[in-house]
Amino acid sequence: MDIAGSNRRIYLDNAATSYPKPAEVFEAMARYMRDIGASPGRGGYGSSLDAGRLVFEAREAVVQLFHASRAEQVIFTPNVTYALNFAIHGLLRRGDHVVTTSMEHNSVMRPLRSAEEGVVAEVTAVKCDAQGRLDPRDVRRALRPNTRMIVMTHASNVSGTVMPVAEVAGIAREAGVLMVVDAAQTAGVIDIDLRALALDVLAFTGHKGLYGPPGTGGMVLSPRAATEMAAIIQGGTGSRSDEEFQPGFLPDKFEPGTPNTLGIAGLGAGIRFVLENGVNQIGMHELRLASKFEQMVRAIPGIRVFGPWETNTSAPVCASDRVATVSVGLTSAQADASQVAFLLDRDFGIMVRSGLHCAPLAHMTLGTFPAGTLRFSFGWFNTMGDVRSAAGALAQIAAGY
Amino acid sequence: MDIAGSNRRIYLDNAATSYPKPAEVFEAMARYMRDIGASPGRGGYGSSLDAGRLVFEAREAVVQLFHASRAEQVIFTPNVTYALNFAIHGLLRRGDHVVTTSMEHNSVMRPLRSAEEGVVAEVTAVKCDAQGRLDPRDVRRALRPNTRMIVMTHASNVSGTVMPVAEVAGIAREAGVLMVVDAAQTAGVIDIDLRALALDVLAFTGHKGLYGPPGTGGMVLSPRAATEMAAIIQGGTGSRSDEEFQPGFLPDKFEPGTPNTLGIAGLGAGIRFVLENGVNQIGMHELRLASKFEQMVRAIPGIRVFGPWETNTSAPVCASDRVATVSVGLTSAQADASQVAFLLDRDFGIMVRSGLHCAPLAHMTLGTFPAGTLRFSFGWFNTMGDVRSAAGALAQIAAGY
């Protein structure tokens, strides 16, 4: 069934994971599986060294992407959630106070609540406005003498609101507080320059804007974070095999067990793909699509747009305050978001996510709790045709086709 | 350069990771990457449901392999090290005593030492004999009133010695102590039947005997472990998205963040491959190769074999006391293991691991610390020809070719 007149399926859930992946990512992974196969750092033979080289090249790609200084600062983790847990549970101590925002994903809120429920920390979630925007002055006001960490997202996965991390990082630096940023929604679409941005932990996911496979992510650590962060998971590292204690040097300290060399090979290729196309070019392409989409759906009766899009003036797109994620809601009572998502998929081949996007506090901030939203998120492989199809389908559904 | 007269490279490091992988594993992964791509449990559209189905089918394959009772008992983790950390750090409490063995890998010893160094537990490592064999009576004697857990490997990654887990599990059950087994070296080659074997945590790796890709592993939990184990990593699960606390139900409690659906798809295919060929058939094939290899190298002057092979009587192979991992040492002082491994790779295309295999205490037990061993580990895709090539190469090197 294909009411929209197109038989191509349209993927608009890039905020969950990007799809498709570049051919280079497939090829890098197939090459590892076929020709190498070995584990890095676990043998002195050629294939094991080749595997080590693949991982090192991926580390170098991360260095280049974020303008980091050394490959050892880059830690690969199974996903961004693990990186955030390593930072939160590895850095917080008894009696610490933590500042976060009301726009966080559960990858930040759940470890924080767990730490707070346990013995460790007290958490202040600074309230953002109804478009999800944070006033950095509120962060400064939330600091206490025992504040040890500010942890916050770089952009909301619900509304696409970009947070003022540079300003907050400046406040953190001034106060001697650790600054941890969740770049799950921004790595690959907003230029993150660690030479200018003083972060202690930059946590990133591999399978969204970096076009790697699922099972990949990581973090870039400042010297302070590298020293002060305890390794909450320990195991074999292929190094210091004579010792029963986790080695203290990077990256081994935080990479226990056999690494996901296959995934890391794909991630390295994904990052090189992003670097070749240009982070700003990709970000602007996606934002152009999202802006066009927002303009089209804003005109549909019965549809409401949330987040920074709500106050959009249709001015030339500015990349600074949002990423290409548009959450909409239906003002009519008869259709809920999950029903619309189902119809978009079944009748139009359009894939979006509906409901609460693993971020309850963010939905409360935006006024979309507990109903949630219908989220359209654009990627490098989407086109203006996809935008028109999606907006057209939404108009048909809203009109009760 | 190819002294051995064969131009095929021979991979004998299957105890680190198996290579090659079955074609079915490639195909399952390529299909996910090409046709599905979405994250499971993160959307209601068809591709996300397809991804969820893939993960569920892999869970069902694990159930079938280990004769578990329900798919929810099966938790996927990034590797076996994470599963063991989840069990150790998630189950141990202040003041607990833990019993382990002197044959453990650092995936067990490092989290235990970290727990011991911190606030949590005291650890008794029961001494095994010079072949790595454990007397279950020593485990019983090590128990104390505050013993909460016995954690041990199912087979040594250094010597291939299989441990008496059934007997120890009986002792644990009797004493009301949690029983945690590291099946990194046995899953896929020894039949593990959870209907008969009372384990609280069976931790497994995906990329060795189960022929999945790196980045995969997991654990099967008893109802007691599922309840008592705290989730040490928290994050989005695609479930209970209205809550800032980690959900308490399985498998979500222990699977935070976007899962490695690509890897899990490959692991599912790998396990189905193992089930089709038969765990016992695979185990016997590998053991036949290892036994033949051991017989051949035993005859080489200057070579010593460690572990249960040392007392091998050349009787018909018995699958019960060892897996297909043979560690050898050189009695002559002029060549060390890493030098021999280098020559095997460079001149004969034979890939093995040398040194300390992330298990310092095991090497002390076997009397191979700190020099380590040269480890030959066989897989399903190895042949008797590989065995002859490896033994022949070793003979040439020992003779100072």
Describe this structure in words.
- 2 copies of one chain form a homodimer.
- Chain A is an alpha/beta fold and 401 residues long.
- Chain A has 2 domains: 132 residues, Aspartate Aminotransferase, domain 1 (Alpha-Beta Complex); 255 residues, Type I PLP-dependent aspartate aminotransferase-like (Major domain) (Aspartate Aminotransferase, domain 2, 3-Layer(aba) Sandwich), CATH 3.40.640.10.
- Helix content of chain A is 38%, strand content 15%.
- Chain A has 12 helices and 13 strands.
- In chain A, the strands form 3 sheets. The first copy, chain A, has a 7-stranded mixed beta sheet with strand order 2-8-7-6-5-3-4, sandwiched between helices.
- In chain A, helix 1 packs antiparallel against helix 8, helix 3 runs parallel beside helix 4 and helix 9 packs parallel to helix 12.
- The longest helix of chain A has 21 residues.
- Chain A is globular, with a radius of gyration of 21 Å.
- The interface between A and B is large, with 87 and 87 residues.
